[in-house]
């Protein structure tokens, strides 16, 4: 039994301080406000908590009325992963689109405008950007969330994104350390394993993270992945060798280490969320992210009590928990100072928001398009077409709430456009539904789905004037009368593609 240096109240507050929980609803429940008053220092927001910017602003004000230094975090990558616009689709293209343009000033401008929107709504910690090098094209969870497969490209755009966010007072949380790109398993479902040597890890996975640390990223999020060359026994989130030895000591990172969602199966299925949280803090993590799935008071109390008991039994050094809590408070102080500075200049946020302006996302999406014409001259579609959306199962990070595709944008340009969504379909079904209309086939990661390839083969054989729009990884050869690669499925990517289909943007 360890002798506690501080009283139980301090220990309990520290245990609450290191938690970043979620909740259900568009206003803060009473239990959450009560726990904030008792020491809870962070709250994580998801799509279920957001309806409009005005509602979000009121929600963050409600949280800060209880405690003005509470950290309000969100998983807002832009592109396919959006919480601000979960019901509409994002106004900003994601990392893959930005990486395909490879203009770091554009990436910085997009991140700055996204950061302004978050800051105006009272959000001050963004669990972004993804610094994963997507070296495995079969990756089911990263894909378009990465800037690309080249470490140096990912590094320079990660730095630009961090600069853009933090320049407007929103702390960046660079993820998923030490790199989730070379996996073919989604850590939401199981534990991915990367078996490459240390030289490969340093030349590939770690390059963007070194750059982000050097650029001053305020936070880093750990990955629930096993890297046998670094630690053959525990995933990165629970590994002292990776979090303390590599990230803290070798890379020199002094900011906040946040875990990926503790309820994800890669950790919870083996360790459980309570033991997983204790091991993560002991390994060097400072904040426990939980709430994507488990988002109730009982979860918060279970984790709080697990941390307190681990200190009392000697499993978790009290100094380590106190250090983690201190890092959370230090980041809260930084964000609070930025909020105060912004509030001291009346109208500053509005004035700043005009340059480069809210249209920067559409500008970036248009620049990211890659349009390839077929062998025959392309005739732009002028009559209402039929849009066939070949829809794969969405990964957990993206979710299935957010609309994607180009049908809505084509309907705006060509009223009367019809659409159908297909899963494991045949070309015959599409042709029967389309009738005499021109067909626009929308795919997502065509190279990963054999059923999609077969359906598209049949469709193009019967209707060679079909337009193909790829909204995932652009790995398959261009096909169709017109092939449009959007490099992501954000709403603005759909709008840019629709413009190309009708001939106004190609």
User: Terminal Cα separation, in Å?
Assistant: 71 Å
Alpha plus pi helix count: 19
The main pleated sheet reads as: 6 strands, parallel
Order of strands in the sheet with most strands = 2-3-4-5-7-9
Shape: globular
Low-confidence stretches: 1-6, 344-357
Helix/strand class: alpha/beta
Task: Specify the helix fraction band.
Answer: 40-55%
Which percent range describes the beta-strand content? Answer: 5-15%
Give the SSE map.
Layout: H1 8-17, E1 19-20, H2 30-38, E2 42-45, H3 53-66, E3 71-74, H4 95-101, H5 104-120, E4 125-126, H6 151-166, E5 171-177, E6 193-194, H7 198-203, H8 206-215, E7 219-222, E8 226-227, H9 240-250, E9 256-258, H10 265-271, H11 273-283, E10 288-289, H12 297-312, H13 318-343, H14 348-352, H15 360-368, E11 370-373, E12 386-390, H16 407-413, E13 418-422, H17 427-434, E14 439-443, H18 450-462, E15 467-470, E16 482-485, H19 491-501
Parallel strand pairs: 1-10, 2-3, 3-4, 4-5, 5-7, 6-8, 7-9, 12-13, 12-14, 14-15, 15-16
Antiparallel strand pairs: 11-16
Polypeptide structure, described:
The longest helix has 26 residues. The chain is globular and about 75 Å long. The chain has 506 residues and is an alpha/beta fold. It is built from 19 helices and 16 strands. The strands form 4 sheets. The protein has a 6-stranded parallel β-sheet. A 6-stranded mixed β-sheet has the order 11-16-15-14-12-13, sandwiched between helices. Strands 1-10 form a two-stranded parallel ribbon. Strand 14, helix 18 and strand 15 form a beta-alpha-beta unit.
């Amino acid at each position: 039994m360890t002798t506690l240096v501080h009283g139980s109240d301090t220990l309990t507050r520290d245990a609450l301080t290191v938690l970043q929980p979620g909740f259900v609803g568009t206003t803060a429940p009473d239990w959450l406000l009560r726990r904030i008053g008792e020491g809870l220092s962070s709250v994580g927001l998801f799509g279920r908590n957001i309806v409009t910017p005005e509602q979000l602003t009121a929600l963050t004000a409600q949280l800060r009325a209880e405690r003005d230094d509470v950290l309000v975090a969100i998983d807002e990558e832009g592109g396919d992963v959006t919480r601000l616009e979960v019901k509409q689709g994002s106004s900003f293209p994601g990392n893959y689109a930005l990486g395909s343009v490879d203009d770091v000033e554009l990436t910085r401008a997009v991140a700055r405008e996204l950061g302004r929107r978050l800051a105006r709504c009272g959000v001050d910690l963004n669990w972004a950007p993804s610094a994963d090098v997507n070296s495995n094209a079969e990756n089911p969870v990263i894909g378009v969330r990465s800037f690309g497969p080249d470490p140096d490209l990912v590094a320079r755009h990660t730095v630009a994104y961090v600069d853009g966010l933090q320049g407007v007072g929103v702390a960046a949380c660079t993820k998923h350390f030490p790199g989730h790109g070379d996996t073919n398993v989604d850590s939401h479902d199981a534990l991915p394993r990367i078996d490459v040597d240390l030289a490969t890890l340093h030349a590939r996975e770690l390059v963007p993270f070194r750059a982000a640390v050097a650029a001053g990223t305020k936070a880093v999020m750990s990955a629930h992945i096993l890297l046998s060359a670094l630690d053959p026994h525990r995933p990165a989130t629970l590994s002292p060798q990776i979090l303390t030895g590599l990230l803290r000591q070798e890379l020199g990172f002094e900011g906040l280490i946040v875990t990926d969602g503790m309820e994800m199966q890669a950790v919870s299925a083996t360790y459980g969320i309570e033991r997983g949280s204790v091991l993560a803090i002991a390994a060097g993590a400072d904040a426990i992210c939980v709430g994507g799935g488990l988002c109730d008071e009982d979860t918060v109390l279970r984790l709080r009590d697990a941390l307190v008991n681990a200190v009392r039994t000697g499993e978790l050094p009290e100094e380590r928990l106190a250090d983690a809590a201190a890092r959370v408070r230090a980041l809260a102080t930084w964000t609070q100072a930025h909020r105060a500075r912004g509030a001291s200049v009346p109208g500053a946020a509005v004035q700043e928001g005009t340059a480069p302006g809210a249209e920067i996302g559409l500008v970036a999406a248009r620049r990211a398009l890659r349009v390839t014409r077929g062998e025959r001259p392309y005739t732009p579609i002028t009559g209402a077409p039929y849009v066939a959306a070949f829809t794969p199962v969405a990964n957990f990070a993206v979710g299935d709430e957010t609309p994607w595709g180009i049908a809505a944008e084509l309907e705006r340009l060509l009223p009367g456009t019809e659409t159908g969504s297909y899963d494991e379909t045949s070309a015959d079904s599409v042709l029967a539904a389309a009738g005499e209309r021109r067909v626009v086939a929308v795919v997502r990661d065509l190279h990963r789905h054999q059923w999609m390839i077969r359906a598209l083969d049949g469709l193009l054989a019967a209707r060679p004037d079909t337009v193909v729009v790829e909204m995932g990884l652009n790995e398959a050869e261009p096909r169709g009368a017109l092939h449009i690669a959007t490099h992501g499925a954000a709403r603005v990517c759909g709008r840019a593609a629709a413009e190309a289909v009708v001939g106004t943007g190609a």
